[in-house]
């Protein structure tokens, strides 16, 4: 069982800091199989905090008005349900769940278009199909709050404000052979920095966007810029066309890589003004208990928000460091207080920057792989400005891995880069079952 290789709590974590009730109904009671719960020799004490999580499945009630054979796309629905599993969706939403759900919606559009002349759904049909999608995913263990977590609505299945909806018009206006060549196989190592598919999608979206002006009788619209909303809606139409040309697996792989490029460009964490940290660390030249204590406490709160990737952690560390520098903290307090990249991610687990999935196993429940779990120092920004930060330049790469001489703890941290972690982490159990918010 994966429980035999638990991921220890981060340096910044503690029971008192993590014990709290959920702020919403996102985290429902966990359904634990009695067969996997070990015997507790001390019944008056709390059970050990990590147990596998298993989904509660049931037969969904559908509208009966969505003209799609869902069994034909069952495999990709299973993957989406797993990636958006009930206890984890909010914690992996930015990196895993929402990218996968978005990819599935594009694939669903493409599959729908195989028996239609249109690449998108009409509003009424989109409403019914979207309800069925959420119900089916929920019946397979997915979180029912996916639309809220990912800010997605049934209108995402329609063309929105894009003027081109039908296949014939699309293929007449777009260089489809060029589009398919660029996006049929997306290179995960090159696409984010030397994009091929992304500009092809943008060009195709632009081509069908201009139809809005060509079909308009208003001559005053000539020369006006196309709105970003129209362009984005037309990108959805382009994704749908790609989906109908590729297999579900190929389309999903391509779309997840494109999402990863977008996800890894920004830090998804919410940083509140670190006034106490700035006041305690402004004139620090050497490690001080007050400065490091307040810094660690602040980052412990940030860490609880979600799981992030190693590249996101670099950006987050830079963003936070820039905030501190603008407040007058000049000294590298990351180095003074031993702050690592992993300290910015939940439970000290950094996900890979490449697309990852939550894995379900009948024995261990949900699990995922942590990357770069060793002590990799958080980079202190060279200046308060982050406008020049780039993860694509030849001079910028992930920090070098520590050698055996630099590893302070030869235990779990020295066990390698990747750890398969049971999804019900210490954080989830202690925070959402035992404490007060």
From TrEMBL:
UniProt-listed Pfam families: At1g61900 (PF26584), SPARK (PF19160)
Domain SPARK: 64-216
Residues covered by the At1g61900-like C-terminal domain: 265-338
Highest taxon of source: Eukaryota
Assigned GO CC terms: plasma membrane
InterPro entries found in the cross-reference section: At1g61900-like, At1g61900_C, SPARK
The protein, known as: SPARK domain-containing protein
Source species of the chain: Escallonia herrerae
Taxonomic placement: Eukaryota, Viridiplantae, Streptophyta, Embryophyta, Tracheophyta
């Amino acid at each position: 069982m994966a429980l035999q290789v638990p991921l220890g709590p981060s340096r910044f974590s503690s029971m008192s800091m993590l014990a709290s009730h959920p702020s919403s109904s996102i985290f429902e009671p966990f359904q634990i199989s009695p067969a996997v719960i070990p015997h507790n020799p001390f019944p008056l004490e709390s059970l050990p905090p990590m147990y596998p999580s298993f989904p509660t499945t049931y037969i969904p009630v559908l509208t009966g008005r969505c003209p799609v054979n869902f069994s034909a796309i069952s495999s990709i629905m299973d993957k989406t349900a797993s990636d958006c599993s009930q206890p984890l969706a909010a914690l992996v939403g930015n990196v895993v769940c929402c990218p996968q759900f978005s990819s599935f919606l594009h694939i669903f559009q493409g599959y729908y278009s195989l028996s239609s002349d249109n690449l998108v759904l009409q509003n009424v049909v989109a409403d019914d199909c979207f309800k069925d999608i959420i119900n089916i995913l929920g019946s397979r263990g997915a979180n029912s709050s996916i639309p809220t977590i990912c800010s997605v609505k049934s209108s995402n299945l329609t063309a929105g404000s894009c003027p081109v909806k039908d296949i014939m018009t699309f293929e007449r206006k777009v260089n489809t052979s060029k589009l398919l060549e660029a996006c049929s196989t997306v290179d995960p190592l090159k696409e984010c920095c030397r994009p091929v598919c992304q500009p092809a999608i943008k060009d195709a979206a632009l081509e069908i966007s201009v139809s809005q002006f060509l079909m308009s009788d208003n001559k005053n619209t000539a020369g006006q810029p196309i709105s970003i909303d129209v362009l984005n809606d037309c990108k959805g139409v382009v994704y749908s066309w790609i989906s109908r040309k590729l297999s579900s697996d190929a389309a999903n792989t391509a779309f997840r890589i494109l999402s990863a490029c977008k996800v890894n460009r920004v830090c998804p964490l919410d940083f509140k003004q670190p006034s106490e940290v700035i006041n305690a660390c402004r004139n620090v030249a050497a490690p001080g208990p007050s400065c490091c204590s307040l810094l660690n406490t602040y980052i412990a709160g940030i860490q609880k928000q979600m799981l992030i990737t190693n590249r996101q952690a670099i950006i987050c560390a830079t963003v936070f460091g820039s905030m501190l520098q603008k407040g007058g903290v000049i000294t590298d307090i990351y180095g003074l207080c031993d702050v690592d990249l992993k300290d910015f991610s939940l439970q000290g687990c950094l996900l890979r920057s490449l697309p990852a999935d939550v894995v379900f196993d009948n024995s261990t429940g949900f699990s995922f792989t942590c990357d770069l779990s060793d002590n990799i120092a958080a980079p202190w920004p060279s200046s308060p400005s982050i406008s020049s930060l780039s993860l694509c330049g030849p001079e910028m790469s992930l920090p070098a891995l520590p050698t055996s001489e630099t590893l302070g703890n030869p235990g779990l941290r020295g066990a390698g880069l990747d750890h398969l972690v049971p999804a019900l982490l210490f954080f989830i159990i202690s925070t959402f079952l035992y404490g007060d918010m």
